[in-house]
């Protein structure tokens, strides 16, 4: 009998490798001890097959990405404007907003490159509703497969109007489900310092903006731009839903977003300081300015005042301001999502996260920015 057929030999070899000792070990005593449930997640490939991207939308996204890149690299003197709800919570209301924005985009396209803000993930300081993908029914049921489908369908519907979309990338897996439909992406203030998000940005096909830190510091954002422009290798999930090692080429279409911190940083002095810091790091002297968040002291009406100040800087000839962000919805303000409420209980067109400008305030602000670009150009 050869050693290959010798059961005694196999048993000794198994025991030498620790098999006899480990074969009945209960690993659940040290693994998943705080996991309450594990549910199946649809693979990105299946969702993309179910909701494919039409050729017209493919062309729209590719064209918008190139136009944004041209703005960032100084080949296009328009102002990039990311405008829309703080977060999406209702498909029909988002589409009503998109139709209004599409009209403004066409009318102001000579001066403004308008992209609709379509945010599905909401970072929380402690706890709260985490967004349309995480909890699309707004009731804590966490139907994430449904949320992914609804998010992708909304992006397809917005694109069908001829309107490009921008979003914040918060979860590291969700881009595989929707990133082919995104013209511009953001990394928020709480995640700009995250190595994983910098690596993600280095492999994304769209331009990406990094917000300054929550304390207002610019260095974390400039470091993020440098990191994202470099090649990286990291672990992730493929479209087929399997684990893989991704090797990226780096993203040269990244930039810094000023969103304020301990104090606002939209004024001319802050723009100068930010651009000096970027120059010292060997980066392009350019910024996008967020009219909301700490720049408006979390008072949504002040976005108009911030926008007027920024428009003045642009009209004065400052070409380093290449973009702005505005939180805007159909109606002004915000509302709480109370426990037990349904979507039908909410006021239509009003944000359930950060307070937003209403469309009646947003449209004149867009026109003011367009006039500022005309003055800068002349």
UniProtKB/TrEMBL annotation:
Organism per entry: Roseateles hydrophilus
EC assignment: 2.5.1.54
Top-level taxonomic group: Bacteria
The entry's keywords: Transferase
Stated name of the protein: 3-deoxy-7-phosphoheptulonate synthase
């Amino acid at each position: 009998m050869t050693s290959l057929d010798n059961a005694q030999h196999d048993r000794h070899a198994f025991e030498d490798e620790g098999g006899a000792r480990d074969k009945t070990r209960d690993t659940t005593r040290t693994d998943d001890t705080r996991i309450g449930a594990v549910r199946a997640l649809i693979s990105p490939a299946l969702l993309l097959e179910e909701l494919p991207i039409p050729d017209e939308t493919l062309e729209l996204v590719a064209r918008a990405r190139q136009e944004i890149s041209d703005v960032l690299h100084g080949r296009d003197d328009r102002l990039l404007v990311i405008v829309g709800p703080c977060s999406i919570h209702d498909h029909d209301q988002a589409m009503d907003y998109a139709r209004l924005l599409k009209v403004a985009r066409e009318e102001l396209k000579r001066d403004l490159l308008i992209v609709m803000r379509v945010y599905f993930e909401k970072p929380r300081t402690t706890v709260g509703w985490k967004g349309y993908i995480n909890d699309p029914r707004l009731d804590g049921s966490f139907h994430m497969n449904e949320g992914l489908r609804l998010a992708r369908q909304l992006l397809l519907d917005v694109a069908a109007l001829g309107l490009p979309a921008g979003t914040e990338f918060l979860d590291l897996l969700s881009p595989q489900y929707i990133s082919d439909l995104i013209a511009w992406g953001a990394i928020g203030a709480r995640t700009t310092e995250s190595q994983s998000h910098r690596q993600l940005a280095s492999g994304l096909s769209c331009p990406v903006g990094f917000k300054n830190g929550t304390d207002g510091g610019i260095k974390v954002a400039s470091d993020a731009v440098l990191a994202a422009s470099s090649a990286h290798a990291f672990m992730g999930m493929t479209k087929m839903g399997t684990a893989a090692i991704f090797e990226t080429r780096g993203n040269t279409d990244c930039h810094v977003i000023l969103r304020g911190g301990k104090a606002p940083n939209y004024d001319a002095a802050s723009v100068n300081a930010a651009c000096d810091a970027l120059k010292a790091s060997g980066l392009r002297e350019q910024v996008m300015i967020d009219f909301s968040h700490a720049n408006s002291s979390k008072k949504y009406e002040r976005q108009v005042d911030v926008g007027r100040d920024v428009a003045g800087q642009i009209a004065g000839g400052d070409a380093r301001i290449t973009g702005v962000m505005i939180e805007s919805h159909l109606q002004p303000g915000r509302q709480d999502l109370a426990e037990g409420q349904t979507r039908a209980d909410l006021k239509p067109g009003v944000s359930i996260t950060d307070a937003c400008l209403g469309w009646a305030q947003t449209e004149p602000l867009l026109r003011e920015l367009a006039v500022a670009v005309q003055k800068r150009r002349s």
